Amino acid sequence: MHANKQRIYIAGHNGMVGSALIRQLQHLENIELVTCSHQQLDLTRQADVEDFFQQEAIDQVYRAAAKVGGIHANNTYPAEFIYANLMMECNIIHAAHQAGVQKLLFLGSSCIYPKLAEQPMREDALLTGTLESTNEPYAIAKIAGIKLCESYNRQYRRDYRSVMPTNLYGPYDNFHPENSHVIPAMMRRFHEAKCQSDKEVIVWGTGIPMREFLHVDDMAAASVYVMELDDVTYRQHTAPMLSHINVGSGVDCTIRELAESVARAVGFEGELVFDASKPDGTPRKLLDVSRLKNLGWQASVTLEKGLRDTYAWFLQNESLYRK
């Protein structure tokens, strides 16, 4: 019945990026989405992953499965982060190859670039300097994923591509008070402050560092766009040996501007107090997205609209985040 349908496996479909990929792909014709929960398939178990690929007759893979967390989690559980991420990507990429899957997209992270990389960070900055120490194990796993894809392309002429997103936010983000990234953490704190009629919210750091953010629906759109590029076009823009492409908005803002934008989206009207005794982190992190722009894609969701939409989703799903 499905002889002419492309069977597309989304690894990590319940996560923020995986669920956005499903929203992006589910309306396309002649495709059949294949998903499998962690309870059904442990991606760190090689034999189980190989069996899954042999049984499912997959045509394409979007590899969005990853163990992720903020600075605190990365610092506290480095062994779990490097082990789980290495095992998942090795098992999926190798099993896909063994099962004859020709097209695969690997989703990485901007933390692959050196701590002191020139801004904005270009793809060829990879492996030119020392990584940020707090998330080095996670970054090394992501770099290994890029090199796995490159190696299978070189040796077996596979078409395995890699995209490196900037800081993502949106529906299905993690709004945990300690383990979440900056946007969901701020959103939850400002929401609770609004509900409690607090007069002020304290924000860590000076507010001066600059960061780039991309709505996860833009990330999913870019991923499908890169996956669907014809082989000649893709190779022209990624040769020689640069198999990965940065995905970002190309625009950054200060943490102060971000906090003000989140406060507006939430409707918190109190004062924002910046605690300069707390660490700021890297002064600036911005991806050079000129390669993707030259390929014909750029982000369309503004930060203001993305924050409003994310807050609306948070309100509808707030019960998920009650401790």
Notes on the structure:
Catalyzes the two-step NADP-dependent conversion of GDP-4-dehydro-6-deoxy-D-mannose to GDP-fucose, involving an epimerase and a reductase reaction. This is GDP-L-fucose synthase. The structure is a single chain. By secondary structure, this protein is α/β, with parallel strands linked by helices. Strand 1, helix 1 (16-25) and strand 2 (31-34) form a beta-alpha-beta unit. 40% of the residues are buried. The protein contains eleven helices and twelve strands. The mean pLDDT is 93. The protein has a single domain (6-321), classed as Rossmann fold, CATH 3.40.50.720. It has a six-stranded parallel β-sheet, sandwiched between helices. Strands 6, 8, 10 and 12 form a four-stranded mixed β-sheet that branches. The chain is globular. Helices cover 42% and strands 17% of the residues.
